[in-house]
Amino acid sequence: MELVFWEEFNLIYVEKLVKIYNGNVVALNNISFKIDRKCSLLVAGPNGAGKTTLLRILETTLLPTSGNVSVLGFDVVKQAQTLERKLQLRHKILIPILI
Questions:
Q1: Which domain holds residue 12?
Q2: Residue 35 has pLDDT above 50, yes or no
Q3: With 0-12 CB in 10 A as exposed, 13-18 as middle and 19+ as buried, what is 97?
Q4: Cβ neighbourhood burial of 37 (10 Å; 0-12, 13-18, 19+)
Q5: Does some domain include residue 1?
């Protein structure tokens, strides 16, 4: 079992995130924010605002065009496989607790 000390990093860290589709459709334009372990995140906006794009980048199923993004202290591009394993483990632990 691996112990993780949540105080050492932000749960979510996004800096100057940009996602452009097909060379000209800007879904996310220079987004920056951080979420620490005591906060919640609400993603709201109209259709086409980039909500799903943001969440897909956070879960490592979509690569950003540019910017820095980390979840649980792992870079979503450079450490995507490690992060995916961590997210799957957290999902398996949290779902039975919530049911």
A1: 7-98
A2: yes
A3: exposed
A4: exposed
A5: no
